[in-house]
Amino acid sequence: MSEVIVITSGKGGVGKTTTTANVGTGLAKLNKKVVLIDTDIGLRNLDVVMGLENRIVYNLVDVVEGNCRIKQALIKDKRYPNLYLLPSAQTRDKTAVNPEQMVKLIDELREEFDYILLDCPAGIEQGFKNAIAAADSALIVTTPEVSAIRDADRIIGLLEANEIKKSDLIVNRIRMDMVESGNMMSMDDVVEILAIDLIGAVPDDESVVISTNQGEPCVGDGSLAGQAYMNICHRVLGEEVPFLDLKIKSGFFDKLKKLFK
Amino acid sequence: MAFMDFFKKKSSGEVAKDRLKLLLISDRANCSPEIMEAIKNDIIKVITKYMEIDSEGLDIQITQTESEGGNGTVPVLCANIPVRDIKQR
Fold first, then answer.
1. Is A43 helix (H, G, I), strand (E, B) or coil?
2. Would you kindly state where each structural domain of chain B is located, as residue ranges?
3. Dihedral of the CA atoms A202, A204, A208, A213 (nearest 10)?
4. How far apart are the C-alpha atoms of A214 and A202, rounded to whole Å?
5. Residue ranges per domain, chain A?
6. I need a labelling partner for A130 at 20 to 30 A (CA). Which of A101, A121, A155, A191 fits?
7. From its phi and psi, is residue A31 left (phi > 0), alpha (psi between -120 and 50) or beta?
8. Which one of B1, B3, B16 has the shortest CB-CB distance to A146?
9. End-to-end Cα distance, chain B
10. How many angstroms separate the CA atoms of B43 and A114, rounded?
11. Looking at the predicted structure, is the pLDDT value of residue B4 above 60?
12. A115-119 and A3-8 as β-strands: parallel, antiparallel, unpaired?
């Protein structure tokens, strides 16, 4: 049985595409057959984050318009046997596709794949409506900032109104040093405010930037963010995994310094 | 919480959380400033039937309070209405 998950946030720049790439790659590493769909028509990015930008021939709009078959547009990630990407079009806009067409496309893919991940564009307009039309559940990405959390709250309301029953929260870019000094909301604060289930907390980690530079998702590598993403994948599969301790170990002198800051 | 924070005001994380809570109450209630203004004007109309109030000093806002059942917080509409004179019938 396949599950269709939309990755959304409302606000831009909080890490939807990075999350899609990492969770998708992680699920493929766990031997699930996965397809990632970039629904951000006009501003395609998922291909670059995945390092597959040189292999695009056809895209989402080509499939919807019948210029090619789905199989022709799917890019197989050679690093993993079960991972595919359906890129979005760069030269069109959101109105090139409508929600009914998305539902039809995804229904066809359901037969082939275990997980279908939809990378949603920022905003709540047509692109968002296209992305959520066929989704069974949602991963809501936010950062511990007032603006991002406000938008996430609005998105949660819209998803409920569109009868998407399950929404889980990913709090991205947490800086434990700032949380400890009281200058950043903790994941507990964010969960309390948004009142939905937390499925992952990802630290603000240099390895995410480095892996994005290289076009190779960091999920499952040794880094803290890589571990956090892998844990999210296990939880998506329904496993119980304890949350990571994101604290950076500090020595005695660091503690002393902090005391007088 | 560091030792020196004791002397400071609220930490910025706390400030953010408090701001968000209020913001989301009005967002969720779909209460735009225009609606609040309309509510305010209606309240003035009703109360002035019975007593003389300072309509300039009237202030209404949506905040939170502990619910009586003790299960978390609930939104409340708070109106502060200065009364100038209670009219004699």
1. coil
2. 11-86
3. 150
4. 20
5. 3-259
6. A191
7. left
8. B16
9. 59
10. 57
11. no
12. parallel
Strands (E), B1-89: 51-53, 59-66, 73-80, 83-86
Is CATH 3.30.428.10 what the domain over A3-259 is classified as, yes or no? no
Q: Which of residues 147-176 of A touch B (CB under 8 A)?
A: 149-150, 153-154, 157
Residue among A181, A185, A258 whose CB faces B17 most closely? A185
pLDDT digits (tens, 9 = 90+) for A51-110: 999 999 999 999 999 999 999 999 999 999 999 999 999 999 999 999 999 999 999 999
Q: How many H helices and E strands in chain A? A: 12, 8
Residue entry with tokens 């409506």: A129
Q: Which are the contacts of A192, defined by CB distance < 8 A and separation ≥ 6?
A: none
Helices A187-194 and A146-161 cross at an angle (nearest 10°) of 40
User: Which chain A residue's Cα is nearest to B1?
Assistant: A181
pLDDT tens-digit readout, B20-40: 988 888 788 777 778 888 888
Set of chain A residues whose Cβ sits within 8 Å of the Cβ of B19:
146
Q: What is the mean pLDDT of residues A209-224?
A: 95
